[in-house]
Design goal:
The complex is a heterodimer of chains A (470) and B (463). Helices cover 76% and strands 3% of the residues of chain A. Chain A is mostly helical. Chain A has two domains: 1-129, no CATH class; 148-467, no CATH class. By secondary structure, chain B is an all-alpha fold. Chain B has a two-stranded antiparallel ribbon. Classes of the chains: A mainly alpha (470), B mainly alpha (463).
């Protein structure tokens, strides 16, 4: 099984190189499909705790091993990455240039390596490896008006975050004498005196990536400028690197520090939820609105993690994954809408319900899922977040109230968006747009199906999280 | 008085380099071939010695002036290889040029083995003096570069010598092995002044602030192959000189003073270099200014000696600094060599626009080098360099790690600009030259990226 772990990381990377070399997107799609198959095979023959493990020494003097492992926390995220990678590659193979496919695969491979890394140095290197291809996606294939600025901002924010995170990782590795994530978690993290410093450094790094208010300002720019596939991977995969890092790595390496910093983290998360919702209420551009809604959703994840309770951490993991399904779907739909109408301004849209009913229906579905309608995936994570915060009592009650208010505002702005886009008489830009093609439906259906499945039966995923090592 | 026996085998790389210089001067047309063969032989001898047991020679009691251990011989081989690269990308040259280059290489090869202040300073001077002539191209600009380099270098040498003299007067010996116990009991003011002057003077070779301002001016005006040498081999010499003095001489007896001086130098270099590079419009200017920042990163691990936790493990500080220096000069050599391959002079950055399409080979090496200097994957050589110093600083001096991080973030801004110009810009025309040399440089970078152990093993120092 170790070989499959390696394959899950190596296949997308090899696919990226081959696609670049041969300039054929088909190769990339094949590699992404194989990678998805490899990740899907991982639960077979699994043991308790960590399922499988490989470990090859690479550079012992800097504690770097090529060590991969997987468990109930990282596997769903790896699967999500592989799924979104495949969908993006297929989407791009129809219309986009092969080099973009290669870049997407590079992002996918590096992100998978982040989720599966068991060595802190490897984790850092994989984290850094995401930066350049994603920068290139935004810079090379983004919206001509804003891409340069957005790409530069993305790169600088990310590298600042990841280097601060690296400092925290290295401090933890020096303190515990090992760079193995599993071993450090098993040992209960770093020394108590160092814990808060390590957690602060790690949390700063991951908060940039997640992103947590007030370090989020790169995200709306990057999302708005990025091409559709870029936005999908940003929302579905890159943000997850931040939250996964926060929950697994920062929480695992410095549990004492996490407990000490919980209040600050919770307050920032609650502010983030409210601020993002208010910004969304006044937002006039659809991709920017979805981007800001991500800031709010990630606020829920961070708030749930900050409560530190078992229910809270599971809510965080669940909300994280649900966001990874719903927001990419929203970006796919927004991309399809912008391709057809050549505008993303809410003021210029309207009446999509009449012009393209299937597209409007899907947009409605995704919006309802995103605002947390019971029965869809978005509901459980956010409901449990509020529950976990209430359970802590005291001042946390205020944060729970803020989160609940945020959820209400989320419903308000998403319904406002639907009102502008779908209802009313068809706007000139919307009139006569093409309906959804069969390929598009096929492309989006896995996300729709997963959103429904998780919404109707959250139990299996929650049980899977419970088997994870935290 | 009985003369002691000398272990001539330990000196073999030096003999070969010196003989190469002599042969090159008289070989006429065959000078280039002779130089390259001689340097390759010198490098091979160094690798052979590195594989064998440690040899020491020129002893005063237990203190040796010359040590041919794995680290020293690895560095000697690196000096030979870098000089070989410079000779290869020099095009058609006169025998005097090659003579001077080989003499300089001999200085570098000696430097790595030196274990006393006199040998070290003589080696640094041997490395530097030939460059006075080499940096000066015919014409006014060349003369300006030559004079600037000459004056800056002599000032720095005098400063370093003064520092060495003060340390000698404080400790009563010039041997590194003798300095350690003696300095701990010597007059504090004398030690502090000697340390500051010696390190300040040697940091000139590394182009660390505050003695940095010669570097952009000289690199821009010197011929590109010589700029390659200045940015790689010569900087490696500066790094080795500083690391050797600190690690073997000062860490035990005057670690706190040295750490403090180096902390000032490192922070100043990182700040000045990055801000300077940010406003550069010329390729060589950008690499030169960012090189100043990198000099700061080389010194940063040693600066951790200013803290108590840093002084507990001085060998780790020296290893981190040396590993960074080696990765850094490899990347610099790659960047300058690939630039030499496509241009006669440095030129503006936008003149490299679209080089990726015009000359894919050199452009790839240039991109790997530039991304490596920014410390990002897939150019892992640079990432490993950053990991090496941050790992040490995270455990020894967290504030210094934050300074390095801040510098690296600024660094990304200008490296990314250069990289995207090469990749996506337009307008470059190039007829690539020196394909084999640039390819070799690229292969070395790829090897260091895949198997960092090659570098990290021989740069790890024990006391």
């Amino acid at each position: 099984m170790g070989l499959i772990l390696v394959a899950a990381v190596a296949l997308p990377l090899a696919g990226a190189v081959l696609t670049w070399w041969l300039r054929r997107s088909g190769v990339g799609v094949a590699a992404a499909a194989l990678a998805l198959a490899a990740v899907a095979l991982l639960p077979a023959a699994r043991g308790p705790g960590w399922w499988h493990r490989v470990d090859y020494p690479w550079a012992p003097s800097i504690k770097l091993d090529f060590a991969l492992t997987v468990d109930g926390v990282s596997w769903p995220l790896a699967l999500l990455t592989a799924l979104l990678g495949l969908l993006c590659c297929i989407h791009n193979a129809r219309t986009g240039p092969p080099v973009l496919t290669a870049l997407l695969l590079a992002v996918q491979g590096a992100s998978t390596a982040v989720f599966l890394a068991d060595n802190l140095i490897l984790f850092f290197i994989a984290f850094e490896a995401v930066l350049l291809p994603m920068w290139a996606v935004v810079y090379r294939y983004g919206d001509p008006a804003t891409r340069r600025h957005a790409a530069a901002k993305f790169a600088l924010f990310t590298v600042a975050g990841s280097l601060l995170m690296a400092t925290g990782l290295f401090a933890a590795a020096a303190d515990t004498g090992t760079a193995s994530l599993a071993q450090i978690i098993a040992a209960g993290g770093v020394d108590r005196d160092l814990s808060l410093a390590v957690f602060t450094l790690l949390a700063l790094g991951f908060a940039v990536k997640a992103p947590l208010w007030p370090l989020h300002s790169w995200l709306p720019d990057a999302h708005t400028a990025a091409p559709t596939v870029g936005s999908v991977l940003l929302a579905g995969v890159l943000l997850k690197l931040g939250t996964y890092g926060l929950i697994r790595v920062a929480g695992g390496l410095a549990p004492d520090g996490a407990a000490e910093a919980a209040g600050a983290l919770g307050v920032l998360a609650a502010i983030g939820i409210i601020v993002a919702s208010l910004v969304c209420l006044g937002q006039g551009e659809i991709k920017r609105l979805i981007a800001y809604s991500s800031v709010g959703h990630m606020g829920f994840v961070v708030l749930a993690f900050a409560t530190g309770t078992e229910a809270g951490v599971r809510a965080a993991l669940f909300a994280n994954l649900a966001h990874g399904l719903i927001t990419p779907l929203l970006f796919f739909l927004a991309g399809a809408l912008k391709d057809r109408t050549r505008t993303g301004l809410l003021a210029e849209l309207g009446g999509l319900r009449l012009a393209a009913p299937a597209l409007a229906g899907l947009l409605g579905f995704a919006s309802l899922a995103s605002l947390g309608l019971p029965g869809l995936a978005g509901f459980w994570g956010e409901a449990f977040t509020v529950y976990a915060a209430v359970e802590r009592g005291g001042a946390w009650f205020a944060l729970a109230a803020a989160a609940a208010l945020g959820a209400f505002l989320t419903a308000a702005y998403l319904l406002r968006m639907l009102k502008h886009v779908s209802h009313g008489p068809p706007a000139p830009a919307v009139e006569g747009v093409a309906g959804t093609s069969r390929t598009e439906i096929a492309l989006w259906s896995p996300l729709v199906a997963a959103t429904l499945a998780l919404g109707l039966a959250p139990g299996p995923l929650l049980d899977l999280f419970a088997t994870g090592v935290l | 008085m009985e003369s002691q026996s000398i272990d001539h085998a330990a000196l073999l790389p030096l003999y070969l380099a010196a003989a190469t210089a002599a042969v090159a001067l008289f070989a006429g047309r065959a000078a280039k071939a002779a130089t390259m063969i001689g340097l390759a032989a010198s490098g091979a001898a160094a690798i052979w010695l590195a594989a064998g047991p440690t040899r020491r020679t020129f002893a005063v009691d237990d203190w040796f002036s010359f040590t041919a251990d794995e680290t020293a011989m690895g560095l000697a081989a690196l000096f030979a290889a870098l000089t070989l690269l410079v000779a290869a990308i020099s095009g058609r040259t006169e025998s005097e040029y090659l003579f001077l280059l080989a003499v300089s290489a001999a200085g570098g090869i000696t430097l790595a083995s030196s274990r006393d202040l006199i040998t070290l300073i003589v080696a640094v001077e041997t490395l530097t003096v030939p460059l006075y002539v080499l940096v000066a191209r015919p014409g006014r600009d060349g003369a300006e570069a030559g004079v600037t380099f000459l004056i800056a270098s002599i000032t720095a040498s005098a400063t370093a010598l003064m520092g060495a003299a003060l340390l000698y007067s404080a400790a009563g010996t010039v041997h590194f092995a003798g300095l350690a116990p003696a300095l701990a009991e010597a007059h504090t003011g004398l030690v502090a002044a000697g340390t500051a002057l010696l390190l300040g003077g040697l940091a000139f070779k590394l182009a660390a602030a505050p003695l940095h301002s010669w570097a952009p001016l000289v690199l821009e005006r010197a011929p590109l192959p010589i700029a390659t040498y200045l940015a790689s081999a010569s900087k490696l010499g500066g790094a080795i000189a500083v690391i050797w003095v600190v690690h073997f001489g000062l860490a035990a007896g005057a670690g706190a003073e040295a750490g403090l001086v180096l902390a000032v130098l490192a922070v100043a270099s990182i700040a000045v270099g990055n801000i300077g590079a940010l406003v550069q419009r010329r390729t060589v200017g950008l690499l030169a200014w960012s090189g100043i920042a990198h000099a700061g990163y080389v010194l940063a691990p040693l600066a951790a000696l200013s803290t108590a936790s840093g002084r507990e493990n001085p060998a780790a500080a020296a290893s981190a600094a040396l590993a960074y220096a080696v990765f850094f000069v490899l990347l610099e050599a790659g960047a300058f060599a690939s630039l030499t391959a496509v241009r006669d002079d440095g030129g503006r950055i936008d003149e490299l626009g679209g080089l990726w399409r015009a000359a894919p080979g050199p452009a790839t090496v240039l991109l790997i080098s530039v991304i490596g200097l920014a410390g990002l994957p897939p150019a892992l050589a640079g990432t490993f360099a950053k990991v090496a110093i941050l790992e040490w600083l995270a455990s020894a001096a967290l504030w210094m790690a934050i300074v390095v991080v801040a510098g690296a973030v600024v660094g990304l801004a200008y490296y990314l600009r250069l990289a995207r110009t090469v990749l996506l810009g337009e307008g470059a025309r190039a007829r690539p030259r020196f394909t084999v040399a640039v390819l070799a440089a690229g292969l070395v970078l790829a090897a260091a990226s895949l198997a960092p152990g090659l570098v990290l093993e021989f740069t790890s120092m024990s006391q």
